Amino acid sequence: MPKTLIEPFRIKSIEPIRMTTQSERVELLEAAKLNVFRLHADDVLIDWLTDSGTGAMSSRQWGAIMEGDESYAGARSFYRLETVVQRITGMNFFVPTHQGRAAEKVLFTAVCQKGELVPNNCHFDTTRANLEVLGVEALDLVIPEGLQPSVIHPFKGNIDLARVESLLNAEGDRIPFGMITVTNNTGGGQPVSLANIRAYSALLKSYGKPLIIDACRFSENAMFIKMREPGYANTPIPEIVREMFSYADGATMSAKKDGMVNIGGFIVLRNEEWREAVRNVLILTEGFPTYGGLAGRDLEALAVGLDEGMDEDYLRYRLRTAEYLGERLAASGVAFVKPTGGHAVYIDARTVLPDMPIAHYPAWALCNALYLEGGIRGVEIGSVMFGKRLADGTETYHSMDLVRLAFPRRMYTQSHFDYAAEVIDEVKQKAATIRGVRITKQPQYLRHFTCECSWVDA
To answer: Residue 95: is its pLDDT beyond 80?
Structure first.
């Protein structure tokens, strides 16, 4: 067989890209207050800000949209999606939401109390914020290898079981449930092994605590298990997925990732313990339980997309795409989180910009440099996203400063990745000229989305 792994699809609709110049991008970034979130999408050449809701839907999904039942209550589109979710997860209670952060908000509001504590391998930004706004502590307990970008480990997303047990012994009365994020977005899109999920679940249950999976990228996690975990090489992806969910008592999902859709999410629970509370919050904030903030056509597209996201040919291509860019970066001497994750490549900004003080936000600065050099939009996963400005004006900083290049599903071709590799190499060569930033305006929560910045030497 040829060594080149081709895209397992053909393209039948295209969207033009506006080719900006570097001088234009300088002005555009200044107008955006040095925050790539504030750029107009039309001014971005390659948009790797996020893989959430940005991918291309299939012809089968577009066909399913025409079957959407837009009835307010009891739409057949809901029951079709419910059947798919129940088959995939093995859980009976299903509630749709308009996206993942809504699922988090509904679940946490229903079952959490101020002063409680929720452990996770790593909470991503909205998960952490939705807990903290309720006065709940969000604690990250990923294994030590998960915080070391250059260290190779097959499952760097694993939770540290010894620290979990110590926490349960010391703070068990504060813990309503444990979480695990698959794959671990904060730490480089790294997978979690089935052995780790199984042991974590058993540990929580020995203390009477449920396990909730943040399942945004459950299919990608399952593919890593198939490729890396002993005993699963010949196991079909749906069987791995079913076992993964079998250890959980519930899950939240942003279906805009492995659901292969542009909008949507859900909560799924194994029993009815939290059912009524969740449903009451849902009706208050999202809508009736059979549509949950989504149109019937969205429910139909998701019912198809969940199965398409588990296709092994697609998943093999998906993971290989990240691996390919990693190989190109390694050849250029650009440091990144190793091994590459499932949905993105995470550049280690502290290594690329070793002389930049953390107080000048090296990952944010590198994001800006990638846009200025080649029109590439990534996202900072570092001290702007996960740091905080305290009441006395001091800052807390994150353990890593990464630039995530997250790839929309079924959207970009190899030539886009080759172009990006050239741009990143050029930025690395100009590292000494890259300027840091200071934050001049920020909200209390999730500051990275809307904050305003200026150059440190301005």
So the answer is: yes
